[in-house]
Protein 1
Amino acid sequence: MHGRESVRGEGSGGTVESVFGTIIGRESEQEALSAFVAAPGGRALVLRGDAGVGKSALLDHVVELATAENHRVIRAAGVEAESELPFAGLHQFLYPLLTSIDRLDDAHRGVFDVVFGRGGGAPPSVMTLGIAVLDLLSLAASQQPLLLVLDDGQWLDTSSTEVCGFVGRRLTGSSVKFVVGLRSGVPSGFDTAALPELPVTTLSEKVAERLLDMRHPGLDPQIRRLVLDEAQGNPLALLELPPYVHGGLAGRNPEKLFGYTGIPLPLRLQQVYGARIKSLGELVRAELLRGALDGVGAGTAADRTRSTRYRMRDADEAAACGLLDIDPLNGDFVFRHPLVRSTVVQVATPNERRAAHAALAQVHRDDVERRATHLAASAIDPDEQVAATLEAAADSATRRGGAVAAVAWLTRAAELSESREERSRRLGSATHVAAQAGQLDQVRQLVRSDTGSGNNDSPASVVASGYVASLEDGDLRSSQRQVFAAIESMRDVGVREPNEVLTRLVDLLLGINLYASDEDAWERTHELLDSLGDLVSSRSRVYQDAWGDVGRRGAGVGERVERAFAGLPDLEPWDVARLSVAAYHVDTLSRYRPYLQRTVDREVETGALVNATTMLLLIMMDQITAGEWDEAERTGQRCLELTTTHRHTLFLLHTQAQLGLVAALRGRINRARELQATVDAWARPRGVGLLTQITDAIGTTAALAEGDYEAAYLHAIGITPPGTFTPYAHQAPRTLLDLVEAALHTGRAQQARTHALAAQRAGLPHISPRLALTTYGALAITTTDLTEADHMFHRAETHPAAPHFPYELARIRLAHGIRQRHTQGPKTARRFLIQAMETFERLGAPTWTERARAELKASGLTTHTTSAQLAELTWQERRIADLAASGLTNKEIGERMHLSPRTVSSHLYRVFPKLGITSRAALRDALGKISGDQNV
C-alpha cells in the first residue's frame, strides 16, 4: 500500500505500509483492486483484516485507481460513538448527493425525508430505502461512474449497515462500485451481507523488514529484531513501536517493554498511545476526549460539512506527539488512527467521560438523537427529563426505521425513570419493539429488568413474557392467565381512553386464544372485551371475530378486513400480519398475498422475524389452499430455517403441521404421519388446540388419500361431530367436505346429509368463498333429489371463487361425476370426471388422480382422454378437421370452403389442442374416437 511523509491511520484515510508514495508489497491485493475498478458494471468488495494491517492504505489505492478512471469518489467511515445513531453512516454517503435527491420522484424523495427527519410518514423498510438509494446512486452515476468507500465498516450503525448490504448485493448493471474496510474480530452486520471479500493479511517478513528499514533506518540491531518479532508483520506496529522502544519509555530495558506476553498486538499499541495521552495536560486530554466521543476523525466530506461535529481546539501538543493530524481541507484536528481514538476513551476516568458527554449533549442540543446519546451516557441518577428526551429520541428512531437504537434508548430511559410506573411503561415499549423483531433473548433480558424491580405483574412485563413463553415454549396456559389478569387490572383501575399497552395485551390475548382454541377462554375473552367497549380498537375487533369461531362470528368479516387493508400505507407490519390471519380465516387471503410476498423479504432484512415468520406461514397456507403445493413446500422450508435458527418453537411446529398437511394431500402418507405424530406429541400436552386440530386434519386427509374412509371418518369426528360445528374449533368448518365424504363412503348417508344441512343453517356460504363452495358441494352430493343435486352442483362449480380452491372443486366434480354415471349415464359423467382427474394430476395428488381415472374407465373411456378432447368443435372446425383427415392440404381445404390457407391453418391450430393431438396424422383416429364416444 502507499504512504507519505505524513503517515495517517485507517480512520482518517491515511496510510501505513508505504513510504514516499511507493507501494511496498501487496502485489496480489493491488492486482485484485485494479481488476475491481476496471471491471465493467457495478460491484461490491469487502477488505477484511486486523487493526493496523493497512486496510485504509488499500482503500486509498482504490481511490487513486478510480480517480484515474474518472470516477467520482465519496468516502465515509464508521464511528464507534455513532454506532447506535440510526442512518448516521448512510448520511455520510448521501449528504454529497442531496442535490440529486431533489431529482427523484416524489415517493423516493419522501423516503429520504423520513430517514433524515425532514418529513413524516411511516418508517421505510430496508427494501424500500435500499431501492431508493439504488435509484439515487444510479442517477448520480449516470453522468460519471461512482465509487463509494467505507472505512471502519464494523462501526457503522445497524440501520445503515442493513441498507448498505442490501445495496451492495444489487449493484450489478449500474456504474456504482462499493468497497468496505472491516476490522477482523469485531462483529458487524456486514458479516452476513454476503458481499465478496478480499482478506488483508500481515506483511511477509521480507516486506516487513523493508518497510521498517525505509521508515526507521539505522535502528539498533537489537531493537530492530525486537520490533520485527513483536509487530509480526503488522504495518502500524512497524511504524509506531520503534519510537516507543527507542525512547526508553518507563526507563526499562527494551526487551522488558514487551514482557507482558499473551496480550494482542492492538492492545500493546494502545499502551503505546496511552503513554503519550497520559503525558498531555489535563485540558488537552479533555479536548481529545470530547473529540473521541463525538466521532472526530472520519475525515469525510459529510463530516466536514456537518457544522455540529465537535471541533477540537488548542490540541497542538497532541499533534506534536503523533496522536493527531491536520485535515488539509479545513485545518481541523483529526485522530491519526481509530486506535488513538479508542485509547483516549479507555484511559479516561468514568467521571471524565461523563463530563465530556454532558458537554457534547449541549453541543448537540438541537439534534434530538445525538443529544439523547450523550445525555444517556452523562447521567448517573434517575432523571425524568433525560428519560423523556431518550424516549423522544426512540420515537424519532422508530419513525425512521431504527428499531435497534429505539430499544437501546427506551431501555436507558427506563433506567433513568423516576417512578416505577414510567420505568415499567418504557421497558414495555422497548420489549414490544424487540418482540416484533423476534429478539427473544433481548425480550427476556428486558423482562428480567422489569421483574427485578418487583414489578413482575405490570402490563408491559406481561406482554413481554407472553411473547417469549408462547413463541419459544408454547406455554399458552400461564400466559393466558397473566394476560387476563393484566387486562382486568387495567379495566378495574379505570382506564378511560384507548391505551397502547392495553391494545398490545388484547391482541396478545387474542393470539394466544387462537392457538389454544379453548371455548371457555374465548367466551371469557368476549365477555372481558365487551366490558371494555370502545377501549378495544376496531382492528382488534376484527381479530376477535375472525380468529375465534368464524362459523358463528365471521359474517361480514371479509368486508371489514378489506376496509382495514384499504389503509395499507398507514398500517404497522404487525397489523398487516394480523389482518392477513383474519383474511385467511375468511378465505380472502389470496387478494393480499402479493403484498405479503413483497413485505416478507423486507421484514427478514430488517430482522422483524415474528412478522416475517407469520407472513411466511400465511403465504404457505394460502399456497396450499390455491393448489400451489410445490411452492408451499418451498415456503415451508424457508419458514423452518427461520424458526429453527431463532428458536421460535411454536411457529416451527405450526410450519411442520402445514407441511404434514401438504404431504397428506399429495399421498405421501408416511411423511404425513411422521409430522402428524411430531406435532401432536408437542402440542397436545401444552393445550395448543390449533395444532392438534391440524394434526387431526392431517389424519383425515391422509386416510382419504388412501381410500380408508372409516379412518377418515373417525379423524373427522374428532374435530367436530356430524350435524354441528364444535365452537372455536378452527378446523371444524374447514373439514366440512372431509366429514361428508367419509360418512357417505362408510354408509352413513344420514350423518352426511345432516352435516351438510347444518352448514347451510349456520350460514357458512355467507362467511367465505371456500365455505360457500364446500357447502354447496356437500349439499349436492348428499341430497337424494337429482334436481337439487344439479342445482347445488351448478352453484358450486360456477361460484366466482371456485377456481381459487382447485382441490375442493375437483373433489366435488369427482363425487358429482360418480353420481351422474350411476343416474344419468356415462356420457354425462365424463366431463366432470376428466376435469377432476386433470386437476388432481396437476396438483400432484396421485391417489386422487388414479381414483378419478378408474371412474373414467368405468364410464367407458379407456384412454387418457382429456377434457380438451371432449370440447365441442364448431361446425367449421369439424369440417376443416374432416377434410384435413382425408389428406387435403390447407390450400385445397381453403378452395373448397372459400377460405384462405392462413385461415385454415388458424382453425387447425385451435382444433389440435381440443382433440389432444399435435399432428395431422392423428386427426383420423381422434375424430373417430369422438364419434364412437358420442354414440355410446
Note: The beta strands are 18-19, 22-23, 43-49, 72-77, 146-151, 176-183, 197-199, 324-326, 333-335.
Protein 2
Amino acid sequence: MEIKEQQVCYHCGENCDEDILHYEDKSFCCNGCQMVYQLLNEHELTNYYCINEQPGTQQKKRTPKEKFAYLEDESIRRRLIEFSDGNITKISFYLPQVHCSSCVWLLEKLPQLHEGIANSKINFMKRELYVNFHEDVLSLRQLVELLTNLGYEPLINLEDLDKKQKKKKASTQTNAFLVKLGVTGFCFGNIMLLSFPEYLGINQADQHFVEIFGYLNLILSLPVFFYGASDYLKSAWSALSHKTVNIDVPISLGILALFLRSTYEILSDTGAGYLDSLAALIFLLLVGKWFQQKTFDNISFERDYKSYFPIAVTTMRNGKEETIPISKLKENDTLLIRNGELIPADAILLKGDAHIDYSFVTGESQPVPKASGDLIYAGGKQRGGMIELQMVKEVSQSYLTRLWNDSAFTENRYDGLDNWTNKISKAFTLAVLLIATGAAISWWSSGVEVAINSFTAVLIIACPCALALNVPFTLGNALRVLARNGIYLKDTNAIERFSRITHIIFDKTGTITSAENESVSFEGTPLMGEEEKLVSALVHYSTHPVSKQIDSYFKNTQVDLTVQDFQEVEGTGISGLVDGVSIKLGKASFVSQKREDKPQKEVLVTTAHLSIGGLYRGKFVMKQQLRNGVQELITQLSGKYKLSLLSGDNEGERAKLSEIFGEGNELRFNQSPQDKMNYVKELQLKGEQVMMIGDGLNDAGALRQANIGVAVAENVHQFSPACDAILSAKQLSQFGKLFGYGRACLKVVYVGFVLSLLYNIVGLAFAITGNLSPIVAAILMPLSSVTVVGVGTLLSTLKWKK
C-alpha cells in the first residue's frame, strides 16, 4: 500500500484526506475553510494565521440557509438585544469555539469585515462577544450568519430570551453595590485621616481643631451609617420583626451603639467618639460581601432545560417550511426535525426514519428506532435524515419541562454554617445584653452618664464583626483555591455539606466514562486503501454509536461511493452493497459463522466484526475507557462511604462495573431521570446524606434533590445543570481530596471563632471597667477583623497544599 504524505487544512488544521482544495499555494479540506480564508484575505486580515497556526474551526458542515430565519422575528429580536437607540444596537453572544489568541484578534477585527459593525470586544474567559452594529446596514440575522461563516456560530438557546433582562438586573445590582462600597471606602479613609490628631494626643491649644475634625467626621459618618450599613440594619429589623435573631442583630447593635454614642460625645463636646471604628467595621463587612459575590462571576449554577432548547424550530404550515420561535408553537403543529436537532415537545412521528438519541434526557447512549405513529418525548435528538412530527403537547407541558416542576427545584436548600452562625448569634446577643446590663448596674452608683457609657462600651467592643467576616473570607478563599484546581463550588455552605456526606451516587455515561477517551483499533487482516473507503461509506449510512466511532477511526473520510440494499438490524449489525461489494459489520454470528467472542475481561469493551465480499477480515475493538483516575477514586471512597451507580444504559456492563465498585455497593441500570431522583429521596428518608455526581440534563433532578450535587463537565463555562458544584472532567481524579479539604477548612473556621472570642474577652475587660477609649476601640476592632481574615485566608490556602 502506497503511503502518501498527509496534507492538513491551512485554515483549521484538519486532515484534508482525498478532498484537497487548493487556493494560491495553500491547501483546504473543504469549500467552507477556503471561503473563510478568501474573506480574510480580501480584507487584509490574514495575520489571523500568523498568531497561531491553523487557528480556525472546520467548515465542512455548512449551516442550512434558513437556520437563523427566526432572528427576523421582532419579538425575539427585542428580547435578544441589550440596547438600541435606532442607530446603534448592542448585543452579546456566547461563542464556545473561541480557544486562542487568533480568535480574539479576528473577532475584534469584525468592523473591518463589514461596515455595519461599529466595534466588537471579546471576553476570552467568558467566551462572550460584545458587538455594536448599525441595524440599518446589517441585520441581526446577517450578523449571526457572518459569525457562523467565520466558524464562530453563536450559541443561542431558549434561556437567552430571559437572560438579557436577568443580566441587566444583576448588572444594576452589582453597580449599586460597588457605588455603596466606594462611598463607604471614601468616607472611611477620610475619617481615619481626620482622627489622627486624637491618636497623636493633640494639646489643648489646638482643641478647636479637635472640634472641627469631630464635626467633619460626623458629617462623613452619615452616609456610612444610613447608606453603607443599611442592609445590615434592615436585615436585623426583619429578623426581630419575625421574632428571631441572626448574625446581623448583634452587628447592628454594635453599629447603633457606635453611631449614637459618637454622635452624643461630639455634639456634647465630651469626647471624640468612635466613628473611625464604625467606618472601619462597615467597610470591612462590605468588602467581605464583595469577596463572596466576586468568586464566581463566570459560572452559572442554575441552568434548566431552557439552556439547551433552541429558540426556534422548522414547521410545515400551508405546505411551506417556516422557521418560528418555540414560544409560538401550538398543539398539533407539524415539526420538521433534521439530523442532530433536538425535539422541543412531545410529538407523534408522521414520516421519516427516526432514530432518537435520548442520552440528553435518560443517559441511554444508543439511539432508539421509532416507527410511524410512535410517541417521541421532548429532549430526544434525531440521528439520521429529516423526520416529520405532530405535536401532541405544548413545550411547557412536555415530559422534560414537567421534570423541572418537581419540588426539588423549588424548595429551600440546606443553609449549613449560616444556620449555625445564627444559632450562635442568639446566644451571643443574649450574653452581650446581659453583660452590658450588668456593667451598667455596677456603675450606676457612679452616675447615670458613667452607667450609659459602660453599657454602650460593651455593645461596641462586643460587636461580632470578626465573627461575621470569618466565614466569607476563610471559605471564600477556599472556593478560589478549589477553582484554581478545577473544582467550582456554588457557595461556602457546600464546603460544610461535603463533610457530612455518607452516601455517594455516580452516573455512568459521561461521568465515570469519557467519549473523548474512547479508542478504536482493528484486529485482523489489515485493510487496504480502497477497502477502507468501502467500510467508511457503509458506516456513513448508520446512526449507531458504534458506526460513528468506526467512522471517526477513518477520520471521517469523504467518499463518493454508491451504497445499495443498506440494512440495519437492531442489536445485530449493518450490511449493504458498496460499489457492488458486499460489506457486513456487526456481531460475529451476523457477519459469518464465526462463534461469538468470550466476554472481555477489560472494562467497557465493544467489538464489531467485519466481512468484505463474503470473507471475514477481522474486528474493530472499541474501548469506552474510564476517565483517568476514576478506578483509584472509587477505591479510595469505597472504604469511607457507601457507593451507588445509576445508569440509563442497559445491564450489559453490570459484571464489569461490579468489579470496579466492589461488593455491597448497589448498581441500578435503565434508570429514567425520575428514577434517579426517587432513589436519592429513598436514601434521604433512611437518614443518608447523599451526594450525586452526574453530567447531563437527565441527572439534573437527582443533582438538585441530593444534599449536594456535583456536575462533571468538559467545559465548566458552558455546561452547568442545577447543582452545588461543577467539577472539570480533567480533575475528577483529584475529587477525593475535596472531602478532607472541606473538613480542614471547617477547622480553620473554628479557629477564627476562637480568635474572635479571645478578642472579645480582651475588649470586654476594657469596656466593663469603663476604660474603653477611642484609641483602644480603633485598635482592637479592626485588628480582630484583620487577624481573623488573615489567618483564615492563609490557613485555607496551606491546607490544600498539605
Note: Residues 17 and 679 are 49 Å apart (CA to CA).
